[in-house]
Give the backbone structure.
Amino acid sequence: MFLLQTQTPTGINSAVSTVKETILTQTSVVDNYIAKAKSLLVDFTPKLVAALLVLIIGLWLIKRISILADKAMQRRELEISLRTFLKSLISIGLKIVLIVTVAGMIGIGTTSFVTILGAAGLAVGLALQGSLSNFAGGVLILIFKPFKVGDVIEAQGQSGEVKEIQIFNTLLLTIDHKTVILPNGPLSNGTIVNTTKFGNLRIDIALTVSTQNDIDKVKEIIKEVVVQNEKVLKDFEPGIFVGKITDGAVAINVKPYCKPADTADLASELYNQIKIAFEKNKIKAPLPKRKVVSGNEAGDEL
């Protein structure tokens, strides 16, 4: 008991010393952390403030640029679908550049980030190259406007009225009310015949009369009928041409101008009105001629 009592104070002192050393060590570590935090805060704060300022000013500038781009596209009378898409594309692209710039100012490595974006873009581009071709074609069509909604075009072996120009496809309505979907990629790179670009269209009326008629009189009758028709445009002189002359018949080609929507009705009306005028003025139609060969004559020819 005496030995235990004499060693107890020494053990307690040793334990107290150990605790003090531990506390001092931990305090030193905490002090080091605090010092490092203060140092980082002093060094990082200016960068953080600058990055926040760049972010705020950049977002404001991107908004202004998007508005100015939209106004510019409105002045060029681009389709609203294309305006909306391009405005979003400009905004998103500039925001990505802004985020990468701000991250670099803070100290975040952007090299790997840009590399990943580039690789992802390449992979997506290869996977969607057909769709991207159609997208690019749609953008070109909407910007350069070889045709617009309501025009009648011939392209890719199809013809009809343009009902809708989408980003990837163009929709046509044929004369028999079939919907044709044309991909914009081949459409923008191929030949397009726009029959309504200038708001007028020439039609061809083919007639034949007998060679026994006075051709000048026939042309005067035709011209009178054509001029009196309300669907014929008066700004253009209708063409009346004498064509091929065959046995007992003279071909006459009539070429008046009209609005694209009136082509079928005008052709029908002119054929009907010219027939009535010919009958009224006793214009003779060509008589078909047939050669009859008897059996004996055929045998002689053989």
Remarks:
- The beta strands are 152-155, 158-165, 169-173, 179-183, 192-194, 201-202, 205-210, 239-246, 249-255, 257-258.
